[in-house]
Amino acid sequence: MRKSNFFKSTFIIAIFAIFALVLAACSDSGSENEEADDQGNESAETEGSSEDATVEITDAHGTVEVPVNPENVVALDNRTFETLSDWGVELAAAPRDLIPEDIPYASDESIENIGNHREPNLELIAAADPDLVIVGQRFGGFYEDIKELVPDAAVIDLNFDVSEEADTPGENLENGFKDITISLGQIFDKNEEAEQLIADFEQSIEDAKSAYNGTDTIMSVIVSGGDINFAAPHSGRVWGPLYDIFDWTPALEIDQASADHQGDDVSVEAIAETDPDWLFVMDRDAAVSSEEEASPAQDVIDNAPALQNTKAVSEGQIVYAPADTYTNESIQTFTKLFEDLAETLAE
């Protein structure tokens, strides 16, 4: 009798144990499913918020709300082309006539070609139905026209003169490049890449500052159409603001200097009379001329008799800006220019 009761008790205990295990398994499964559901919901919410995310960008006209990673982008500012291309941003339309050949956008037939800033086909911007239009520099004067054409798009004007804190053209240029790069990084979710571009830019400035001895005289010129024209300190195209950044000693200063894209009309003889220690040259034709007979800036300098006895030419103390500088005034271009200055001045 006792044996029978023993087996009966053992059987009941086993049943309860199995039942407890089943309950535990169901409970764990339910928790896992709930956790998976929660994770799925969080993922969906995150994905949805990413798609609808916007960022506030301060441009030359105020604050603009811009979608993050916009689908249809029109870029008109030649300071942005290399950065956008390096980041893999697809463009719906752009002034391909102004884009240097070594940037893939120039030959991309899928991008509507707006032409150049002198006779642009702005209707192509409207036809592209953009989410974002990036205006700046050569196209700055068309800002209001573009806003009227695409009232539903975010239109930002990235001209440098947005900085009220800048006291000199050099500060304006330096701050402007940083602001543009930060803004593009926020818009296209490339913040780390933007930070790296700025870090390289700042390092190149420091290196070029350290390489200059503080006393050598600098003459900056623009070669255009075979002519050598003066790029004035502070105001001259490309070179002017750099006198502020690097505190260069100018070999020549003139009254009523301009920012003309071909430089100021100062005779080669007047330039030679200053006998500069260094000659800094931008070749405009290299960036814009399609004529085979256009003379490279180096040939023009080498064949200018008046310059041959200057210290800069006779001792080979000449720095040429990157060939596409005139149409590719990106942060990468200026970083390369500053690196070249640092390397050459330090020799």
Automatic annotation (TrEMBL):
Region Disordered, residue ranges: 30-52
Gene3D superfamilies reported in the protein's UniProt record: Nitrogenase molybdenum iron protein domain (3.40.50.1980)
Segments of skewed composition (Acidic residues): 31-52
GO cellular component: outer membrane-bounded periplasmic space; plasma membrane
Swiss-Prot/TrEMBL keywords: Signal, Transport
SUPFAM superfamilies: Helical backbone' metal receptor
GO process annotations (BP): iron coordination entity transport
Protein name: Putative ABC transporter solute-binding protein YclQ
